[in-house]
């Protein structure tokens, strides 16, 4: 085989991973738990399943009674990424109810397949006497029935009195019961009666059994409730109209529930005790030890309950806004079980500096704060009010402003230890107007910029706010002055830390600028699309960065007049946050929503991947912040709580660049990452015979770097001039390197087994791992065999158009992967 002929790598390569010592890793700071929306006890003691909703749906399982949780793959096929309910069958199958459909997992939530037809309303009723039978209602009232475990479903057309709530009778095989409401039109009023129906042919026909709630017992429609049997065969019906019980399979009913207070009920039977029931009424959880006759309130749960279940041993498990908690049947206290369960949806995390660093969160259902860098957390409120939004001070690291949910504006100058009221009524007098997107500057009360917004649409969906002007306050937000900026619509305001008189307002294809503290405004016409997010250089007021929705990054060095792209191609798929190192403004950091980190040390001219993306992270967009105390530390809000990453732990070898040179006398290309060779080539005095930089380069690891999976050294050969060659050849395939040594030793000198280290592409399709870019290889098809290596698909296509041949993996000819 002669170098230059089309080749097939024989080496099988695994997925690329970072060097074990090269990349820092995200650290979970907590708070543990967070909002858990669903929980279900498994068919085996100690096994439980939980679901959360953050930016997407996440599920967890435990086999040690909640001591540790393990995240399971996402529920594929969940409409709108929302998991509403989990249910476990006696054989261990797990059912997930999403909007309009039910999915089923037979392997502990590792994989999911569709179970129900699309368009269902509620969880399936599972027949305990035959695991293959189930029924489920559609959102149009049709009942679907299966007797082959969901392979085929038969529709039962709706009839008058079709039940709203369904359950199988576990003590009479084949009997299906349901609850339906009946309307009676009287001369002067309308009455509702709630009745039990039964079907002995799985929903084809229904027969009235008895009235559960006569018209005098309920003042409204009580047919939207819960129907279930306990382990003694007693049938219960629970709704907003009360708690009802039948000891004869539904023939007669009476109301029970002495001690229950409140209109809303959810209940479950204890599998280990036929006389014990557990119910939730509003925020309180109750227990009955006499089959529902009398009830007592259990100790208050730690937070709002989203779901609950009773395990096989009688333990009560609850999913709450602060995680998972359990109360053993023999105890009287709630115990948190949240190790490994991360679901605290943090919209933003802000850092403040005052002696020790403080962390504050907002945009979540419960704000929390830490004064010990996340080692411990406490609830965070201002004047006993939930914090709606935090505004970082532009120039004072210990100062911040905050709106509470009652629209009062507060400020702190001691890193959150104390807060002072800045404006008791910070919003305008009208309910459809407000001041938002505040930018406090320096000592407060003092200069604050903001946007004057009005409600563009209201009604049932609430307000969609649109900016109408930039406003300025000189007394910390107590009074405001409009600046006549001319902005409108959905826009955001930014100011320069280097010169707070320099302001930018960004919107959809809109950019406004002021260089005198919002006194005069200019409307700019950017030469490229600029997104809604901008970032100002901390030291240079003329330098600004723009961040698009899908990883696009642009830079302007003339106060936003002209822009140029500095986007790394492999980042153009996800939303990113751009951070600037305040101690070295040439150092830029891109944080992806999946946790991937790319760093540039030359203001975006070149990028390298420092942290590979994670399939489980869910970082909240626009939440990443550089630490106020340590520039190497990054904090971010996420669906897992607060995350921290310390870039100082990147101890691996720094990457270097392979520089391309061109020798026009021979139309030959050459690459090298050796500093000595680069210096020699750059200083060459051979005139027209010399090599000159072509302007192309790509990032690799230095020769001798310790290898990890998927990485390989590049061997190099030199073609003997007496054989008509005078060219160099590179390969990352050990097999190809050996073949050249064995078959072409008379023409090609084996110079080195390791001139740099790069990634191997997939042999199947040439794909590079996430965070790396393909390097294409082309061959000149001449006797003086020469190859060119480029990361540009456009350059590769130009060379092919000139008669060169693409070589490598996949249809595009990928020979290696660069950082």
Give the CA-based shape.
globular
- Helical stretch count? 3
Work out the number of β strands. 70
Strand-residue proportion: 35-45%
Our measurement of the CA-to-CA distance between the termini, rounded to an integer number of angstroms, reads 30 Å
The strand order across the widest sheet is 60-59-61-66-62
What secondary-structure arrangement, pairings included, does this model have?
Blueprint: E1 27-30, E2 33-34, E3 36-41, E4 48-53, E5 57-62, E6 70-72, E7 83-88, E8 94-98, E9 101-105, E10 113-114, E11 125-126, E12 134-137, E13 143-146, E14 154-156, E15 165-168, E16 176-185, E17 190-199, E18 207-213, E19 226-229, E20 235-239, E21 242-246, E22 254-256, E23 266-269, E24 277-281, E25 284-288, E26 296-297, E27 305-310, E28 316-320, E29 323-327, E30 335-336, E31 342-343, E32 348-354, E33 356-362, E34 368-370, E35 378-379, E36 387-392, E37 400-404, E38 409-412, E39 420-423, E40 433-440, E41 448-455, E42 465-473, E43 481-482, E44 491-495, E45 503-507, E46 510-514, E47 522-524, E48 533-536, E49 544-547, E50 553-556, E51 564-565, E52 576-580, E53 588-592, E54 597-600, E55 608-611, E56 625-626, E57 633-638, E58 641-646, E59 656-663, E60 668-672, H1 675-682, E61 692-702, E62 711-713, E63 715-719, E64 728-731, H2 734-743, E65 748-752, E66 756-759, E67 773-779, E68 787-790, H3 793-801, E69 805-807, E70 814-818
């Amino acid at each position: 085989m002669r170098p230059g002929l089309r080749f097939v790598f024989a080496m099988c390569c695994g997925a690329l991973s970072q060097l074990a010592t090269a990349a820092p890793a995200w650290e979970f700071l907590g708070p543990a738990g967070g909002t858990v929306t669903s929980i279900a006890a498994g068919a085996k003691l100690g096994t439980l399943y939980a679901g959360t909703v953050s930016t997407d749906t996440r599920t967890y399982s435990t086999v040690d009674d909640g001591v540790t949780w393990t995240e399971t793959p996402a529920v594929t096929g969940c409409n709108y990424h929302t998991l509403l309910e989990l249910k476990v069958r006696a054989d261990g199958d797990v059912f997930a109810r999403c909007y309009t459909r039910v999915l089923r997992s037979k392997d502990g939530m590792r994989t999911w397949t569709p179970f129900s037809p699309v368009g269902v309303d509620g969880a399936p009723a599972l027949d305990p006497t035959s695991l293959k039978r189930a029924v489920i209602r559609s959102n149009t009232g049709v009942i679907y029935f299966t007797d082959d475990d969901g392979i085929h479903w038969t529709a039962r057309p709706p009839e008058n009195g079709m039940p709203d709530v369904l359950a199988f009778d576990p003590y009479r095989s084949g009997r299906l019961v349901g609850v339906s409401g009946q309307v009676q039109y009287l001369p002067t009023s309308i009455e509702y009666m709630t009745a039990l129906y039964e079907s002995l042919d799985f929903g084809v026909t229904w027969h009235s059994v008895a009235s559960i709630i006569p018209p005098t017992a309920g003042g409204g429609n009580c047919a939207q409730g819960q129907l279930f049997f306990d382990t003694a065969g007693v049938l219960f019906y629970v709704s907003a109209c009360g708690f009802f019980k039948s000891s004869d399979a539904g023939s007669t009913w009476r109301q029970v529930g002495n001690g229950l207070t409140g209109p809303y009920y959810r209940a479950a039977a204890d599998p280990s005790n036929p006389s014990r029931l557990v119910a939730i009424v509003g925020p309180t959880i109750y227990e009955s030890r006499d089959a529902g006759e009398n009830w007592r309130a259990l100790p208050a749960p730690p937070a709002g309950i989203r779901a609950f279940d009773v395990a096989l041993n009688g333990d009560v498990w609850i999913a709450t806004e602060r995680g998972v908690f359990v109360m053993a049947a023999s105890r009287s206290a709630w115990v948190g079980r949240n190790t490994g369960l991360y679901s605290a949806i943090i919209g933003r995390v802000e850092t403040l500096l005052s002696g020790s660093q403080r962390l504050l969160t907002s945009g979540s259902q419960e704000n929390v704060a830490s004064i010990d860098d996340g080692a411990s957390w406490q609830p965070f409120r201002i004047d006993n009010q939930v914090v709606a939004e935090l505004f970082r001070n532009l120039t004072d690291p210990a100062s911040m402003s905050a709106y509470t949910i009652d629209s009062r504006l507060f400020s702190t100058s001691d890193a959150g230890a104390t807060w002072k009221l800045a404006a008791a009524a910070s919003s305008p007098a009208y309910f459809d107007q407000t001041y938002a997107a505040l930018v406090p500057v320096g000592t407060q009360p003092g200069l604050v910029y903001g946007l004057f917004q009005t409600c563009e649409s209201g009604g049932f969906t609430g307000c969609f706010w649109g900016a109408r002007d930039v406003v300025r306050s000189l007394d910390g937000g107590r009074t405001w002055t409009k600046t006549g900026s001319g902005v409108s619509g959905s826009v955001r305001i930014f100011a320069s830390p280097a010169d707070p008189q320099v302001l930018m307002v960004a919107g959809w294809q809109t950019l406004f600028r002021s260089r005198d503290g919002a006194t005069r405004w200019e409307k700019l016409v950017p030469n490229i699309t600029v997104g809604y997010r901008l970032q100002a250089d901390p030291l240079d007021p003329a330098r600004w960065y723009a961040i698009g929705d899908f990883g696009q990054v642009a830079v302007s060095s003339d106060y936003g007049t002209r822009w140029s792209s500095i986007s790394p191609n492999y980042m153009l798929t996800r939303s990113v946050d751009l951070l600037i190192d305040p101690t070295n403004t040439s150092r830029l950091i891109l944080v992806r929503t999946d946790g991937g980190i790319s760093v540039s040390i030359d203001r975006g001219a070149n990028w390298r991947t420092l942290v590979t993306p994670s399939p489980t992270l869910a970082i909240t967009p626009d939440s990443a912040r550089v630490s106020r105390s340590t520039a190497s530390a990054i904090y971010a809000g996420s669906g897992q709580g607060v995350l921290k990453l310390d870039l100082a732990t990147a101890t691996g070898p720094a990457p270097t660049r392979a520089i391309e040179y061109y020798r026009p006398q021979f139309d030959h290309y050459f690459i090298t990452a050796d500093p000595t060779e680069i210096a020699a080539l750059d200083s060459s005095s051979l005139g027209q015979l010399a090599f000159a930089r072509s302007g192309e380069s790509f990032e690799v690891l230095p020769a001798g770097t310790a290898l990890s999976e998927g990485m390989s050294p590049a061997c190099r050969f030199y073609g003997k001039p007496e054989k008509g060659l005078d060219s160099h050849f590179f390969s990352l395939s050990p097999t190809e390197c050996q073949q050249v040594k064995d078959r072409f030793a008379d023409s090609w000198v084996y110079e080195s087994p390791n001139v740099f280290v790069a990634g191997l592409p997939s042999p199947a399709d040439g794909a590079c791992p996430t965070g790396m870019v393909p390097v294409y290889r082309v061959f000149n098809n001449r006797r003086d065999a020469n190859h060119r290596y480029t990361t540009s698909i456009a350059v590769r296509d130009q060379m092919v158009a000139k008669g060169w041949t693409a070589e490598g993996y996949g249809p595009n000819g990928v020979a290696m992967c660069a950082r």
